Amino acid sequence: MRRTLYRYRYLILGVVLAAIVGQIAFGYSTASSQVDVSRGGVAGWPQYGRDQEGTRYTPLNQINRDNVAYLRKAWEYHTGDFSDGSDGRPETTFQATPILVDGVLYLATVYGRVIALNPETGAELWTYDPGVDATVERGEFANRGVSYWRAADPVQGRACERRILVATVDARLIALDAGRGTPCPDFGQAGQVDLSRGVDLGTYQADTQEYGVTSPPAVIGDLVVLGSAIGDNRAATLERGVVRAFDARTGALRWLWDPIPREPTDPAFRTWADGSARHTGAANVWAQLSVDAARDLVFVPTSSPSPDYYGGQRAGSNAYADSVVALRGSSGKLVWHYQIVHHNIWDYDLPAQPSLITVRKDDRDIPAVAQATKMGFLFLLHRETGEPIFPVEERPVPRSDVAGEQSWPTQPFPTRPRPLAPTTLSSEDAWGLSPWDRGQCQNLIKRYRNDGIFTPSSLAGTIQYPGITGGTNWGSVAVAPRRGWVVLNLSRLPSVTGLIPRARLEAGRPDLPDDATISQMRGTPYGLFRVPALLSPLGLPCTKPPWGTLLAVDTASGEVKWQVPLGTVRDLAPVPVPIRWGTPNLGGPIVTGGGLVFIAAAMDNYLRAFDLETGKELWKGRLPAGAQATPMTYRLGEDGRQFVVIAAGGHGRLGTDIGDSVVAFAVPSVARTCWRSPWPRRFALLGCCWSSC
Amino acid sequence: MAPTLRTAGVLLVLVLTALLIWKLARRNWFWYPLLIILIVIATWVAWIASQSMLVSLLTLFVAMAIAWLMTRGRNRRWRAAPT
């Protein structure tokens, strides 16, 4: 052995020398990074989706293609609100996107605790704890952020003229003074409104473990508009999925709209056979709403009626469920609706915020709504009428083979853009690390009913592809307005769903895969089982990589401009090998005027920047935990730096690393102290730039 | 039946590889294990990319042939070198 080492001594020496030279070269190139802090404009991030239209676009360009490689962590804040499940509390998921308004960064933790931070340093200014019970297991334990309201004619010195609004997972809407973080006493009861009241159907009491709010409310004028999150596979009759508008000053209910038409006078009532609209719940709006203030419109993406996998007791197409709906902002009256899934029995809720964009078509600018879906379809609708901008075809889909179910014979398929995710999966498509696990996957695919997208759940089990989480989920799309593009991320992961006859369910746990979860769907002849991901015995998806992608779509032509894998298996594999196979993802992208797309979302702990033009990955920054959240960016003053901020707290159910961090990145500014330092520049950068420059 | 055969095939390949390593490695604990590891990696990468047994086996045979040629050349050079 010693002789062998001696024989290869020059090779070994060469490798070591190359590593040292490379390290020094990289270090000096890092040190040479500079950013001209006088350029780039000034902008905040006043809403969850950057603006009321949900564009997730900022004109800021201080960070751009030329200098993004030099982004470094500027500060990190720990909320303290997290659990990995070891303390008996449910595992947490930190999905918040902070907002930046009036020079303060506001965010909400998973427990609904509101935190105000200094955006330059990450120093805490105030916090408010609504006292959400963290020990309770909930259908969806999340909080994606806060909203901001300001009085049109504020009185100087009076409290609560600027308000932070937070809706909690236990169904409360709370108004706080933006300056001090104290509840506004004139809002509801001592600063909060109980949202669990007035949503029952007479036979089902609102359950605040399963009824709450996970997305920040929309603000239009002096109204705060919000929907709800409902655990929708508990029973046939559930809470009403009403969208409500409250007075931002008093908390009084101003209007209410029910996505299920309860009255026979409503034309949509006939889409619910046998008057089933009267006893069906949900169809709620759990995703973020959008606002077109100039047109006095609120856009709401509705979801599945209850229960979400069996529709035998709600035959019909079930309008206005699973639709993009435009409501009059001032009154809540229906303006138009467009149904994207008929008679939903796949949990294909509309998960994404409808983004308001302008589509250039036939030399005309068309005001449009872009709606991403769990199916991997992107619908482009006229903002004023709801008419599709490109043709949408009603295509036949597989019928249900379960007694009692009357699945709808067709579903809408957009022709442009074409489906962005695969919609079929054959056993030949199975993928494995070895012939053995590929064979196991082939057997799994053959075992279940598998007739392509929109195959209804069956007694033997059905492959649902795209799976339960999509496609696209609440990350929504980001808009590149100058190009007329939208950027979005997709997961490509099949699930398995199936129905269990009630008698078999009550006889004990049926023979199901170990990772299957069971839902009762009370009041129906069936229970539900779901396997969230079709995995090989080695724990990898049974489908060919990439398992998650980021892509850009030209809305003028409907063409996909580029598509790249999103994420690596570094934090999933036993050995941290950063193979770019893409991963399932949750969270969304943002687009900047610097020609960049920032996104985390994947199952490795990175925030990434991609070139908007080509999709090439230009930079990635390591995070202390998974980041199943959407980043945001801001720049406070003409002499300030542009920051990119992301919540990195992981996602318990997805299986990423849990944490409680809010991390800000910025490019180091040109710093005089650094240049004067007697140390070489690279050490000066490490030693002083972050602390004193 | 097919999955059982496939599993048996994979196990057979693993056992043969282990025997080969044991047989050859004793001659030179650096060179032969290195070659075998490289052959396995090449075959595996071919499998990952193609998901085809045919392509993987072809890659395996080609890699083994290259390894054999390299070993022959190396041994000949060493024998020719002055002591």
Strand content of chain A: 25-35%
Give the SSE string of chain B.
HHH
Low-confidence stretches of chain A: 24-34, 671-693
How many DSSP H or I helices of chain B? Answer: 3
Strand order of the largest sheet of chain A: 1-34-35-36-37
The total count of strands of chain A amounts to: 40
- Average pLDDT level of chain A: 91
Q: Got a strand count of chain B?
A: 0
What is the oligomeric state here?
Answer: heterodimer
Instruction: Tell me the distance between the termini of chain B.
Output: 58 Å
Largest interface in this structure: A-B, 13 and 14 residues
Assign the structural class of chain A, choosing from mainly alpha, mainly beta, alpha/beta, alpha+beta, or little secondary structure: mainly beta
Beta-strand content bin of chain B: under 5%
Gross morphology of chain B: elongated
- Helix content percent band of chain B: over 70%
Q: What is the tally of helical segments of chain A?
A: 6
Radius of gyration of chain B equals 15 Å
What structural class is derived from the secondary structure elements of chain B?
mainly alpha
Number of structural domains of chain B: 1
